[in-house]
Design brief:
Elements (H helix, E strand, L loop, with lengths): L3 E7 L2 H12 L7 E6 L6 H11 L4 E4 L5 E2 L3 H4 L6 E11 L15 E4 H6 L10 H10 L3 E13 L4 H21 L1 H24 L6 H17 L3 H9 L20 H6 L5
Parallel strand pairs: 1-2, 1-3, 5-7
Antiparallel strand pairs: 3-6, 4-7, 5-6
Length: about 270
């Protein structure tokens, strides 16, 4: 029996039974299953942390209440001695866009409990808290990828959430670059360039662009070009000069810290 505590944060009783059934079907059962209810005020990050605080296992596995593991998940997703986290490939359920910006999602991972607690667990961001955790964990040790597809992952397309995720992921990467510049490297620059390019493209598709949002779109595309010259980043930068519109759709709440193009998005005046 693996020394794994399974933590299921839940706000959806209509799907929770499927997540629980997938845990019960494991060929290698966990040490314990902790269902942590979110009353709607804490958010996913703090709800997961509350479950982790009660966990007795040396390994933690977080499973969202609308995701499902294949029966061999806990048997095959093992954390090697020289790693802090192992994760499986995943299959999207009801997905209309690919997973972006992160090596995994919480439901696909098994991680060392001591490493999770050492980095302070999930930070309560509005979005991107999983990516933030993975960046901090990666400083402590390696990640091991299991090639088999062992998670059925539910992703619901939401344009506003997608924009927020791009903003928060870019902010998290910028914050990491500021604090750990020596470790950021070429891979970090590629990831940040990609986030800025996706942000610029998404802003271009907004129903209407005010002058402020056009400036932010142009700045995001230019930042992507500086970090990693690429044809698609150049196309996004050129498109920013031709965007038209006067109606501005609402933006998601800002991340805790704003950098460059992100600050332009949240300027008060146009």
């Amino acid at each position: 029996m693996p020394d794994v505590s399974v933590i299921i944060p839940t706000t959806r009783p209509d799907t929770l039974h499927r997540a629980l059934a997938s845990v019960e079907a494991q060929t290698d059962p966990p040490l314990e299953v902790l269902v942590e209810e979110d009353p709607g005020r804490r958010g996913a990050a703090l709800t997961r942390n509350a479950g982790a605080a009660r966990a007795r296992g040396s390994l933690l596995a977080f499973l969202d209440d609308d995701d499902e593991w294949e029966p061999e998940f806990l048997e095959l997703v093992r954390v090697p001695d020289d790693c802090v986290l192992a994760y499986s490939a995943l299959e999207h359920l009801h997905a209309t866009d690919p997973l972006q910006g992160s090596p995994t999602v919480p439901s696909a991972a098994v991680l060392r409990a001591d490493a999770f607690r050492s980095v302070g667990g999930f930070r309560p961001f509005a979005l991107g808290e999983d990516y933030d955790l993975f960046l901090r964990l990666h400083r402590m040790g390696g990640f091991h990828r299991v090639a088999q597809t062992l998670l059925r992952y539910t992703r619901r397309r939401d344009e506003d959430r997608y924009l927020g995720l791009r903003i928060f992921t870019a902010a998290i990467l910028e914050d990491f670059r500021e604090q750990h510049a020596a470790e950021f490297g070429a891979r970090g620059r590629r990831s940040l360039a990609r986030e800025y390019r996706l942000l610029a493209r998404h802003l271009q598709r907004r129903p209407g662009l005010t002058r402020r949002l056009r400036r932010a779109q142009r700045a995001a595309a230019a930042a992507s070009l500086r970090l990693r010259p690429h044809t698609r980043a150049l196309q996004a930068w050129l498109a920013s000069f031709f965007a038209r519109g006067a109606r501005e759709a609402p933006l998601p709440p800002p991340p805790p810290k704003l950098f460059g193009p992100l600050a332009l998005l949240y300027e008060r005046s146009d």
